[in-house]
Design goal:
Elements lengths: L1 E3 L4 H5 L10 E3 L2 E6 L2 H10 L8 H9 L13 E3 L4 E5 L2 E4 L12 H20 L4 E5 L5 H16 L4 E7 L5 H12 L3 E5 L3 H13 L12 H5 L6 E4 L3 H6 L1 E2 L2 E2 L19 H16 L10 H26 L4 E3 L4 H8 L9 H9 L33 H6 L3 H8 L2 H4 L6 H11 L9 H19 L11 H25 L1
Parallel strand pairs: 7-8, 7-10, 8-9, 10-13
Antiparallel strand pairs: 1-3, 2-3, 2-4, 5-6, 11-12
């Protein structure tokens, strides 16, 4: 499915939004975009161009859950740059980012501004669509989106049909509370019940997508993409990062640089290979046209998280939906995130959701928060008796799918790339099988990704030219990695017991 400048205006219209969609393109044919990396690979072959794995991308994805910058796992195939407009002939022009500030405005006035900005954002995305799908959970960000869409229905009569979509086990908080929200607005509700077959399918799908994300993060997204009769899909996945300034549970003011000092904790890469690619990894992480020496610490950390983590971890998954229909992320239009960025960072906290939901229809604050099982911001008291976990990926991966993962990690396809520390991979597999948690861990992440990488390599007949011999340093790194892996797994088993 190709995506060119002439026939996909919706993508170009949101290229300056935090939640943009980032298609692939070949640097030797930059006028041709696609949301399907295998289409770009096919086109490169037709032009007689080489198809090779990108060693820097492989190292990055082994050490981090996401790729950095515009990089993919294929040499000379890139993602569209973050926050940039395409101006033709392979040239990109960076968008101007709104400033970060230290405002402490009147709460009532600011709430009116942010509510109106959200309504205008939603209206611009829906553009009179008759049927809209909302990715809905029991959290607060998608709940705000639901309230905004409902307000549009009441005030403007559109969209005529709203379909709420969620995934997980029916007794989990996310699914149960999402169903309550949908019922309150008389919206149709679709829940995709997750099981090991979804995870097995997602290993293959992640491979077809370029092995850029672990299959653990795809959930029911491929099935959601196949829903018929929906004109536009909308989500609120950026609510936490924009509203609360929260990234993976950590507030913006306490974030560390995007690239950790100890990259290869499990000793999975050959030391000579990691040394070779490290300069390019650092360049990917810290070289941005939106960051200068004068950029403040907080602004630098926020740009890093949005341009790397949110873009590559989240939006790479959502690409599956965007290939079928227009897909938009709320909270990401400049008029919305610009307002939040203008605030003193310490003011970006949980309270904004509470005040916003008081102003939106549905009395949605009456429905408990999935994170705690209590009413939002309630202190003390008992939480509900529903599960906070909506899947058992860890159990399914290490039991029903164990043989597949072990076989692929031990395969020639992976080992003969010449970059992985064989001793480190073997030790990681041994430690991984000692895990007992339902939830996933870092070893689940990387080993399931290697299973998808296997798919990508086999489907596309793609290889790697650089080879690195193993040495005594790699044996020592594997021993260190085994100690870390076993301690890490034991600690998680104990904490989750």
């Amino acid at each position: 499915m190709e995506m060119t400048a002439g026939n996909n205006k919706w993508w170009f219209e949101i290229s300056h939004h935090l939640g943009a969609v980032y298609p692939f393109y070949d640097v030797t044919a930059p006028e041709e975009f696609s949301l399907d990396i295998e289409f770009i690979i096919h086109q490169r072959r037709k032009r007689g161009k080489p198809i090779e794995l990108d060693p820097v991308g492989l190292a990055c994805k082994t050490c981090l859950p996401y790729l950095l910058g515009d990089r993919t796992l294929v040499k000379d195939v890139c993602r569209a740059p973050w926050m940039a407009h395409y101006v033709g002939r392979g040239k990109w022009e960076k968008a101007e980012l709104p400033p970060h500030g230290h405002k402490k405005p009147d709460r009532g006035e600011f709430l009116c501004l942010i509510k109106q900005a959200l309504i205008e954002e939603a209206n611009s995305y829906l553009k009179g669509a008759k049927s809209v799908g909302i990715l809905l959970s029991g959290g607060m960000d998608s709940r705000v989106v639901a309230g905004v869409v409902r307000e549009l229905q009441i005030s403007a009569g559109l969209p005529e049909q709203v379909v709420a979509i969620t995934w997980g086990q029916p007794d989990s908080r996310d699914v149960f509370y999402a169903s309550q929200i949908a019922s309150r607005f008389n919206w149709e509700m679709h829940n995709f019940y997750l099981d090991e077959t979804y995870l097995l399918d997602n290993i293959e799908i992640a491979g077809r997508m370029g092995a850029e994300v672990s299959p653990l993060h795809l959930h029911a997204i491929p099935r959601v993409a196949e829903l018929a009769g929906i004109d536009v899909m909308i989500a609120g996945s950026y609510g936490d990062s924009v509203g609360r300034a929260e990234f993976s549970g950590r507030h913006l003011t306490s974030l560390k640089p995007i690239l950790p000092r100890d990259l290869d904790k499990f000793g999975l890469l050959r030391s000579s290979f990691l040394r070779e690619v490290l300069p390019e990894l650092k360049k990917d992480a810290f070289s941005s046209p939106h960051i200068s020496k004068e950029t403040s610490y907080v602004r630098r950390r926020e740009i890093e998280q949005e341009s790397h983590y949110m873009r590559s971890m989240l939006q790479s998954c959502m690409l599956i939906i965007a290939r079928r229909r227009p897909f938009y992320q709320m909270f990401t239009a400049p008029m919305v995130f610009g307002l939040m960025w203008s605030l003193d960072p310490r003011m970006r906290n949980n309270e904004w959701y509470w005040h916003l939901l008081k102003m939106l229809p549905g009395n949605l604050l009456d429905i408990p928060w999935a994170r705690t099982g209590k009413l939002y911001l309630q202190r003390g008291g008992a939480h509900d008796d529903r599960s906070s976990i909506h899947h058992s990926y860890g159990i399914w991966l290490r039991n029903q799918l164990k043989d597949l993962v072990v076989e692929r990690v031990k395969s020639k396809t992976i080992r003969e790339l010449g970059i992985f520390n064989d001793h480190g991979l073997d030790n990681a597999l041994k430690a991984w099988l000692k895990a007992r948690t339902k939830t996933t861990n870092s070893l689940d992440e990387v080993l399931s990704w290697l299973s998808s990488l296997h798919v990508f390599i086999e489907r596309n007949g793609i290889g790697l030219k650089c080879k690195h011999e193993q040495c005594i340093v790699d044996r020592l790194a594997a021993i260190k990695g085994r100690t870390y892996a076993e301690s890490y797994i034991l600690a998680r088993n104990w904490m989750r017991q």
